Amino acid sequence: MTEAAATTTASGAQPEYTSDEMMSIAAARALENGTRCFVGIGLPSTAANVARRTHAPDLVLVYESGTLGSKPDVLPSSIGDGVLAETADAVIGVPEVFNYWLQPGRIDVGFLGAAQLDKFGNINTTVIGDDYADPKVRLPGAGGAPEIAASCREVVVVVRQSARSFVDKVDFVTSVGHGSGRGDRERLGLPGAGPTLVITDLGVLRPDPETAELVLTQLHPGVEVEDVRAATGWNLQISPELARTDAPTAAELSTLRTLKEASR
Amino acid sequence: MADIVSLADGVGELVRDGDVVALEGFTHLIPHAAGQEIIRQGRTDLSLVRMTPDIVYDQLIGAGCARKLIFSWGGNPGVGSLHRFRDAVQHAWPVPLEIEEHSHAGMANRYVAGASGLPFAVLRGYRGTDLPEHTATIKWITCPFTGEELAAVPALNPDVSIIHAQRADRAGNVQMWGLVGVQKEAVLAAGRSLVTVEEVVDELDPVAGQVVLPHWAVTAVAEVPRGAHPSYAQGYYERDNAYYEYWDSVGRDRDTFRTWVRDEVLAGRSTAEAGDREGVR
């Protein structure tokens, strides 16, 4: 689905927006004020900064480059932008980020993206294809994600949804979601709860309480169940309490656009 | 006392064919000028170590300097893929590239073990992922006190580590601030070290959040203004985001890349100079 195709043309006072904007705003809403949030670059960083400028002014942003409590006034283009360090409560070395702050469970929410995601919320950012030694596509790799996914109290994934990226089983488990089903995280000894929300440009998925399989719980405005099914590589289950996402408010949109504009 | 040397002499004396070489700098203070000097001097068969092999290693890999890469995230930050890295892994161009792949937490702890003089580090990591199946340097160890099973990763002890810092004094004491990544650990873990700096000064005025490496912990210091470009040096210059976009177009194509090496590296110009020229982007 292209951005243009998803542009809502609802009548009345409803502002127009793209599916990417809806995704960023839905993700921003998922972050409660005061949450300590480990932020990946790209979509998660955009959403976290929108949240901090709307309903969650006390959101604590932690970036793996070594900043605690960054308060950037523009969207950083990399996790190490100077603005993240200059506006932080504390700047620390990278070993300290992982050993003192992430590993002991001091971070509430790990906010991650994904190249490939499966029905149990496992994330692949390593290789596409069955053969690690001879991959179809070599992706960047793990970065901080495996331990973020393991040790944050919960994980929120923000990712554009397509049948290619939403697969039955990831080609490579870079970061563990719910493994092969409910109970796997406990068996593996992973301290955090794993992915509790997957927010896409089409809607929101949550793990089933029994099986931990991702089910569609929310549709963004203008999107139908069949659109989401077509963009999912497994037989997607739909929650009986399927809800509709509220359209972005004018204030949310203007916050997002102002941030993006300032970042050019 | 660390020797104050030229960049060419520092790389010439400290980096040898076949070495395990770490260039560190986590998005900030990346020693780009030193990386290009390694290309210029035609070093080969290197095992390159770096948490985030971004543009600096895309250049070294594309130029055929490396036989192995030990890393945790290989991308062009904020832009996308590293095309030379991908070409090497997917098509063995220009030479085959062996990879040893970790997570950031694993790599950081490997440097900490190296700097600490320990044989390995433990962490609560990798559990349930496919990384241990493909990376021989991830193993499991049982805590002798609690019985918890933890990941063990061996120390990294590069033959030589190279970092970039803001300043050094004439004795070779090195001062850096802002995001300091794993640079201290990389230097202390290494057999030899080269620090490029924005400037060599008479006196190091204290700066908030500074890390100081004493002169007796550093082998050599070279003054290389703008030596971190296109990354940045806090207090000196900003990140050149346009260059990261520009690199995507250079790295995408083998011939374009070869032309870039010939014109921008072998001809003796540094990235810093190239980035300053009108129209390069």
UniProtKB/TrEMBL annotation, chain A:
Stored InterPro entries: CoA_trans_fam_I, NagB/RpiA_transferase-like
Gene3D superfamilies: Glutaconate Coenzyme A-transferase
Pfam families named in the record: CoA_trans (PF01144)
SMART domains: CoA_trans
Source organism, top-level taxon: Bacteria
PANTHER family found in the cross-reference section: ACETATE COA-TRANSFERASE YDIF, CHOLESTEROL RING-CLEAVING HYDROLASE IPDB SUBUNIT
Family: Belongs to the 3-oxoacid CoA-transferase subunit B family.
Protein name listed in UniProt: CoA-transferase subunit beta
Originating species: Prauserella halophila
TrEMBL record, chain B:
Matching SMART domains: CoA_trans (SM00882)
SUPFAM superfamilies tied to this protein: NagB/RpiA/CoA transferase-like
Family: Belongs to the 3-oxoacid CoA-transferase subunit B family.
An annotated Gene Ontology molecular function: transferase activity
One Pfam family here: CoA_trans
Keyword Transferase tagged: yes
Matching PANTHER family: ACETATE COA-TRANSFERASE YDIF, CHOLESTEROL RING-CLEAVING HYDROLASE IPDB SUBUNIT
Species of the source: Prauserella halophila
Name of this protein: CoA transferase subunit A
Keywords on record: Transferase
